[in-house]
């Protein structure tokens, strides 16, 4: 089978632009035989490869990646390792579901932290927590107050912060109130991905800049790249939304594009004006209308805003210049004291959602397992999906597999163009009804 759509790296990722240069692993040369192949080098593939290597120390594992570690969606994200569900709900069933998600997410964060500490991965990893913030009294009433009650029901610690106290923490007068939860990790995601790829156990061979152009699944797995091929009896599919191109998960995924910008570091004088020393992260009460932001350890501000439907998984020609101008205007409105600070980097990335928010996890075909569809929470969901797919594939007993399976499977989507019309209308509606949170 020929692979028609490949990932494209436009080399705009700000998180990697601020890091030292890295030498990527070589692409495939000649014909390579292995016991396992992992397709995709994001959080899911990196976690799956590491876990396979631990489960089967005598097996040869190959990880094959179209681009370079840290340049894909995993390295382009906002760098939040999320430990709590976005929507908790209050019924017993919903609370039970939240507890299952938290067990999985915290296992993933502990796993990543273990790698960061063991190998000294320099990625500004910190359990900094995050603020969930509203900009209007309505957002406070309709989102934050119920969220605080749900956290109480879950027995999770949180702090309600508002007014001057919140302004003091964030350095912006823009927000009405926030719920601070302490369990979220903040990091440079490109540095984390590089570190994960460069510290894999010895029985893992990584190939980068090796897009798979053809795939065959008769008598084992056979993946062909421009420079050679990989053959293995077993595979873990970790190409997220691109797994569709391999004939898997048809009509299950919604592809969205998300945009982010990072300022240059604030000068000493600007930092004094800003008045905040501690790095922070915030997520908006409404994910469509609101803005995700961070103040980083190296004194930059991240703006992540704009989420739209993009079934062709491609960035438009002049799109980033327009996004940058919009991000700058949003930045100025939130930080009027920092008007001279430019956006040094603007980039975009793709997220893969299912209609019902479920992951595409588990057996796909004899000897092929799936760890895809992270529903925009890939740091934790990709990591636990990858680990548990490896355990499932190796027959390793792990009670968290049952938690994972309880998250369900992606619902089928209506056919296009009805899907396109429906999704675009829904996005417009979300933006309109939540405009008070913009
Ligand atoms: C701007 C932005 C902000 C985000 N913020 C956050 C956040 O703060 N926290 C969070 O948890 N999530 C966030 N997300 C979502 C998160 O980045 C994704 O959910 C996550 O990266 C998915 O991980 P993955 O390993 O499944 O997929 P990916 O990172 O997409 O990895 C899949 C890999 O498969 C490879 N591949 C595909 N096709 C082929 C082929 N033919 N041959 C070889 N390789 C192939 C790709 O090159 C890619 O590297 C954000 C996303 C974006 C875009």
Structural overview:
The mean pLDDT is 96. The relative contact order is 0.20. With 438 residues, the chain is of the alpha/beta class. Strand 2, helix 2 (43-55) and strand 3 form a beta-alpha-beta unit. The protein has helices spanning 14-17, 43-55, 73-76, 92-119, 137-154, 163-170, 189-198, 268-274, 319-334, 378-394, 400-405, 418-433, and strands spanning 30-33, 36-39, 61-64, 80-81, 130-134, 159-162, 177-181, 185-186, 204-207, 214-216, 221-224, 228-232, 234-237, 253-263, 280-284, 292-295, 301-309, 343-354, 360-365, 368-372. The strands form 4 sheets. The chain has an 8-stranded mixed sheet. Helix 2 (43-55) packs parallel to helix 10 and helix 4 packs across helix 10. The protein starts with 13 loop residues before the first helix and ends in a 5-residue tail after the last helix. It is globular, with a radius of gyration of 21 Å. The longest helix has 28 residues, at 92-119. It contains 12 helices and 20 strands. It binds flavin-adenine dinucleotide.
